[in-house]
């Protein structure tokens, strides 16, 4: 139902590491370690700097510090970083789980430069997975104006199309935290753009039985992520009525890798409300005068908005994330 990546595809991950980001990283290391060619950290759940440090430590736990990690954009395209989501992910972004310090350092270039270099090096083999506010990707589109048409495509976690938002009644966090950046990315001239919104991510969850197996079957990284999920369960349990947490970011990663089947999707334009109104950050299908125009001035980009995936998504994510070496 959607364009999928091939075994030759390599991935740049943009994240705001975060509990579900951490599971997405463990999953990518378990399923596509050799194809993960760079990671950028953008402010979202935590500051870009804190997210970058978390990412380095996660890679350290998995013996994967050879993957370049770069500092992404701190402030959104308009306004300032709001301090993140400590009530969801803990003040440190990883639910208070102590991650061992690593000797690994950030690369000298920032994430925009890293992404631009990866475009030069890999061209249409490069697929972007964005699981954070879209500030860094949007900035990269400013710096490399033909970036979107030169890479394979982008898969991003964000939006709420037929369901309410999670940060306002209308808007999902990744989009709302930088609505202008998101609008800029959605208006670019991608070969493929796949949006993984709350409509589908809220339907696929880990429960304690999943995290218990993750800790039992996986290595140190999987065990740390399993421990982090206790804080994530604490946040989601009152709203869901059960001890469980949705798989927002891992689902986007699993769809990008081609491990989880898309069974229901919209193929349409997708826009972001960038007005100063209560609906700022809302994702919607029909264009309005406030919409950011397409980057090529004419053609509208068709977005694959995922509404349904295979029932086995949580099990596949578990299997992938538990595959990181001991
Ligand atoms: C998204 O927002 C962040 O809190 C999560 O990491 C995920 O990327 C869910 O709305
Ligand atoms: Ca995230």
From TrEMBL:
Pfam families in alphabetical order: IU_nuc_hydro
GO cellular component, one term: cytosol
GO biological process, one term: purine nucleoside catabolic process
EC number(s) reported in the record: 3.2.2.1
Top-level taxonomic group: Bacteria
Keyword Protein transport: no
Protein's recorded name: Inosine-uridine nucleoside N-ribohydrolase
Domain Inosine/uridine-preferring nucleoside hydrolase: 12-287
Taxonomic classification: Bacteria, Bacillati, Actinomycetota, Actinomycetes, Micrococcales
Gene3D superfamilies from the UniProt entry: Ribonucleoside hydrolase-like
Key words, A-Z: Glycosidase, Hydrolase
Any one GO MF annotation of this record: purine nucleosidase activity
Membrane-crossing residue ranges in chain numbering: none
Keyword Hydrolase: yes
């Amino acid at each position: 139902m959607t364009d999928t990546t091939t075994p030759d595809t390599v991935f740049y991950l943009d994240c705001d590491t975060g509990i579900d980001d951490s599971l997405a990283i463990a999953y990518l290391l378990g399923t596509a370690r050799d194809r993960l060619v760079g990671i950028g950290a953008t402010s979202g759940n935590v500051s870009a700097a804190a997210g970058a440090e978390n990412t380095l430590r996660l890679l350290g736990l998995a013996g994967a510090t050879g993957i370049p990690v770069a500092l992404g954009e701190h402030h959104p395209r308009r306004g300032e970083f709001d301090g993140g989501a400590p009530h969801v992910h803990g003040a440190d972004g990883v639910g208070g789980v102590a991650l061992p310090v690593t000797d690994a350092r950030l690369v000298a270039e920032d994430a925009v430069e890293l992404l631009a270099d990866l475009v030069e090096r890999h061209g249409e083999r490069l697929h972007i997975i964005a699981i954070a506010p879209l500030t860094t990707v949007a900035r990269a589109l400013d710096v490399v104006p033909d970036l979107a048409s030169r890479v394979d495509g982008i898969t991003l976690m964000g939006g709420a199309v037929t369901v309410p938002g999670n940060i306002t009644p209308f808007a999902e966090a990744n989009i709302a935290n930088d609505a202008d950046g998101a609008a800029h990315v959605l208006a670019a001239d991608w070969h493929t753009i796949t949006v993984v919104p709350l409509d589908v991510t809220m339907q696929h969850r880990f429960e304690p039985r999943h995290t218990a197996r993750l800790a039992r079957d996986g290595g140190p990284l999987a065990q740390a992520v399993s421990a982090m999920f206790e804080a994530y369960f604490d946040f989601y349990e009152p709203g869901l009525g059960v001890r469980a947490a949705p798989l927002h970011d891992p689902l986007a990663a699993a769809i990008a890798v081609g491990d989880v089947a898309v069974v229901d999707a919209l193929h349409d334009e997708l826009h972001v409300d960038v007005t100063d109104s209560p609906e700022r950050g809302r994702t919607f299908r029909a264009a309005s005068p406030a919409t950011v125009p397409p980057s090529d001035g004419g053609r509208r980009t068709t977005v694959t908005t995922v509404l349904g995936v295979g029932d086995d998504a949580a099990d596949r994510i578990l299997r992938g994330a538990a595959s990181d070496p001991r």
